[in-house]
Amino acid sequence: MTAFRLAAGELRRITAGRLPKLAVLALVLVPLLYGSLYVYANWDPYGRLNKVPAALVVADTGAKTPDGKEVHAGAEVADELGRSGAFNWHRVSAADAEQGVHDGKYTFALTIPADFSQALVSPAQFQPRQGILVLTTNDANNYLVSTIADKVVDEVRRAVATRVGTEAADRFLLGFSTISDKLRQAVDGANKLADGSKQAADGAAQLDVGQHRLADGSRQLADGSATAASGAAALADGLGQLRQKTADMPAQTRQLADGANRVADGAARVADGNAQVATKAGVAADASQQVVNNLDTIRSNIASQLTGLGLSEAQVQQALAALDTGVAPVRQANARIQTDVGQLRQLSDGSRQVADGARQVANGANQLASATPALTGAIGQASDGSNQLRDGTAKLASGAATLRDGEQQAVSGTDKLAGGTAQLRDGNRTMADQLGAATGAVPDPNDPTRQATARTIGDPVAIQNTGMATAGTYGAGLAPFFLGLALWVGAFVLFLLLRPLSPRALAARQPALRIAVGGWLPAALLGVAQATLLFAVVTTLIGVHPAHPLAAYGFLLLTTLAFTAMIHGLNAYFGAVGKFLALVLLVLQLTTAGGTFPWQTTPDPLHPLHLALPLSYVVDAMRHLLYGGGLATMGEDVTVLASYLLAGLVLSTVAAYKQRVWTPTKLKPELVL
Fold first, then answer.
1. Which residues contact 71 (CB under 8 A, 6 or more apart)?
2. Taking a C-beta distance cutoff of 8 angstroms, is the pair 586, 488 a contact?
3. Where does it mainly reside (predicted)?
C-alpha cells in the first residue's frame, strides 16, 4: 500500500456518489469564488466614484479685483468638479445638503461659502485671508468615501491655490515690467535733471564771479561816495564861511559909494587945500588899493567854490562877469586915484578935474554898491546848493555803504548757491547713474516668459511618477493578498470532506510517512486544481496580467501545497482543534500579512507574526511576480513556503506515528467537528 494508493482511495471515497462529487467541485470552486470575486469587486473603485452621490452647495457671491475684473471662483470650482467626474455631484441648498448627508442621501457635502471669491482676491487689496471650502462628512455613510473626499477637496484646494497664485504672480511680474518702464523714464528724467543742474551749477559759478565783481564795485562806490560826501561837506563849510564874510559887503560898498560921493562933493574944496587933500587922497588911495586887492582874491575864491559846487562853466563865467562889471569901475577908480594922488601935489590947478574924477569914482562906487547884492545872492545860492550837495552825497554814501553790505551778503549767498548747485549737479548725476544701474537689476520679462514664470511660482513643484512596478488598479493591487487568502481558505475547506489520515492504513500499521503523505496528496491535488482555476480566471476574465506568468503560476502551486500541508498537519495532529487553529492562523495572517497597508503600520507586537507566518511571504512574492520589479526576495519567499510544506508533512507524520496506537480518546473523541 503506497501513499499514492492511499490518496486514490481517499479520492474515491469523497467522490462516491453524485452529491459528493458536487461537494468536491464546490470545494474546488471556493478559492475561485473567494479570490476572484474579491479582486473583481475591488477592481477599480476609484473609477466608479462618479456613482457616489455628493452634495455641492455654491453660495459664493463673487468679487471684483482692484482692476475691476469680475471673479466667480465658486462657480468655476463647481463647473470643474462637474467636469471631473470624481463624484455624482448634486447642486443643492445648504439645508438640503446637511439633511441629505445626515439621512445618507448624499455621502458627503462640499460647501463653497459666500465670501469665497472675496477671500481669493483679498491679497491684492493687502487684506489677505484664506478662502474656505467646507467639507461635511458622515462616517456612518462610508468612512473610506469620506477619506477619498478629503483627498479630492485637497486637490481642488491645491488647484485653486495654483490658479490664484499664478494670477497673483503674473500681476506681480507685470508690476516688475511697469517698474522697469518707470525706472527707464526716471533715468531719462534724472539725466535731464543732471544736465539741467550742471547748467545751473555753471550759471551759479558765473553768477558768483559776477557777484564778487559787483561787490568790489560796491565797495569802491561806497569809498568814493564817502570821499565825495566829505568833499561836499568841506565845500558847504567853505561857502558858508564865504557867505558870512560877504554878508556885510553891500553895506561896505554902499559906504564906499557914499564916500565917493562925499569926495566928489568935496572936490570943489580940494582946490582950497591941495596939501590936505593930497594927504587925505593918499589915505583914500591906500583904501582903494586894498579894496582892489581884496576883490581879486574874492573873485578867485568865488570861481573855485562855484566850480566845486558843480555849477557849469557858463554859470561861473556869468557870475564872474557880473562881479567884474561891478568891480571894473572900482579898479578904474583905484588906478585913477593912484594917478591922482601922485599928481595932486603937482596939479593944484587941476582940482576941477579931480572933482570930476571923484564923481566918476562915486558913480562907480554906486554901481559896485548896486552889483554887490547880486553877488552876495549868488554866493547864498551857491552855499544853499553846496548844503544840498552835502546832504545828497551823505545819503549817497550811506546808500553805498548799505549796498556794499548787501553785496557782501549776496556774495556769501552766491558762494553757497554755487556750492549747492555743484552738489546738486553731482547728486543728480549719481542718482541718474544709480537709477540706470537699478533699471538693469529690475526684471522685465516678455509676456511668454512672465506667464511661464507665473505658472511656476503658482505651482512650483510637479510630481513625476516613475513606476518601477505598477499594479494598475486598486483590485490588481490587492490581488496578491486575496489570492493568498483564497488558497488558505480553499485548503481549509478541503478538510471538511477529506480525512487527514487513513484509518485503514493506521490499522494496518503502515509507515507513518507513507500515511502522512497519502493523507496530504488528495488535498494537494485538489489545491492544485483550486490554484489553477483561480489563476486562469483572474488572469483571463478579471484582467490581472502578471509580469512573470509562469513563475506566478508556479508560486501559487507552491503556496497551495504549503497551505494544504500545514492545515493537513494541524488536522492530523490536533484533530478537531486543528481546524480551529487553522482558522486562528487565518485571522492572524489577515491582520499581519501587509496585504492592504504596509505591515510596518501595524502595532509593534504584531511584527513578529508578520515575519513568522507564511502569508506575508506569499503576498511579497506575488507582488513582484504580478507587477514586475526585482526578484531579490524570491529565494527567501520560496524557502519559507517550502519550509512550511515540510513542517506540515513532518507534523502529519508525527501525528500518523502517534495514531497507530488506539486510545479511548481516539475511539470516543470529546469534540467532533
1. 62, 63, 64, 65, 117, 120, 121
2. yes
3. membrane
The beta strands (E) that lie in 485-576 are given as: none
Return d(Cα 513, Cα 516) in angstroms, integer: 5
Same domain membership, residue 95 and residue 38: no
Q: Residue 587: CB partners within 8 Å, gap ≥ 6?
A: none
**181 touches 376 (CB < 8 A):** no
**219/217 Cα distance (integer angstroms):** 5
Closest among 445, 666, 673 to 578, alpha carbons compared: 673
Report how far Cα 589 is from the mean position of its chain's Cα atoms. Answer: 60
- Cell digits of residue 85: 467626474
Do you know the residue count of the chain? Answer: 673
**Which segment of 24-33, 558-567, 588-597 scores lowest on mean pLDDT?**
24-33
**CA neighbours within 13 Å on the CB side: how many for 500?**
28
Fill in the amino acid letter for 63. Answer: A
pTM of the model: 0.56
332 and 280 within one domain: yes
- The residues with which 55 forms a beta bridge, in sequence order, are 90, 109
Residues 6 or more apart whose CB falls under 8 angstroms from that of 238 comprise 305, 308, 386
Q: Report how far Cα 464 is from the mean position of its chain's Cα atoms.
A: 33
Q: How far is it, in rounded angstroms, from Cα 427 to Cα 602?
A: 73
Helix pair 73-84, 143-245: axis angle to 10 deg: 150
DSSP notation for 212-241: HHHHHHHHHHHHHHHHHHHHHHHHHHHHHH
Residue 560: pLDDT band by 50, 70, 90 thresholds?
very high
Claim to verify: residue 16 and residue 74 sit in the same structural domain: no
* Apex 437 CA angle, 432 and 439, nearest 5: 95
In a domain, 135, yes or no: yes
Indicate if 533 and 401 belong to the same structural domain: no
Residues 626-668: tens digit of each pLDDT: 888 678 788 999 999 999 999 999 999 999 888 866 556 555 5
Asked if residue 670 is part of any domain, the answer here is no
433 and 493 housed in the same domain: no
Question: Rounded distance, CA 58 to CA 91, Å?
Answer: 7
Alpha carbon 389 to its chain's center:
76
CA distance 606 to 546: 30
Same domain, 432 and 500: no
The reported pLDDT for the residue numbered 168 is 54
The number of folded domains in the chain is 3
> Cell numbers of 387, please?
548844503
Contact status, residue 641 vs residue 590, Cβ threshold 8 Å: no
Residues 341-356: tens digit of each pLDDT: 677 667 656 666 766 7
- Tell me the pLDDT band of 618, cut-offs 50, 70 and 90: very high
CB 211 within 8 A of CB 407: yes
361 assigned to some structural domain: yes
CB atoms within 10 A of CB 471: 17
With CA atoms as reference, report the closest residue to 7 among 556, 498, 492, 496: 498
Q: Which residues of 75-105 are buried (b: 16+ CB within 10 A; e: fewer)?
A: eebbeebeeeebbebbebebebbbebbeeee
Same domain, 617 and 547: yes
- Domain extent, residue 137, equals 48-180
User: In the predicted model, what is the mean pLDDT of residues 350-364?
Assistant: 68
Which strand (E) or helix (H) includes residue 110?
A: strand 108-112
Q: Where are the alpha helices (DSSP H) in 271-350?
A: 274-308, 313-344
Residue 378 lies in a domain: yes
Residue 658, Cβ density class (10 Å: 0-12 exposed, 13-18 middle, ≥19 buried)? middle
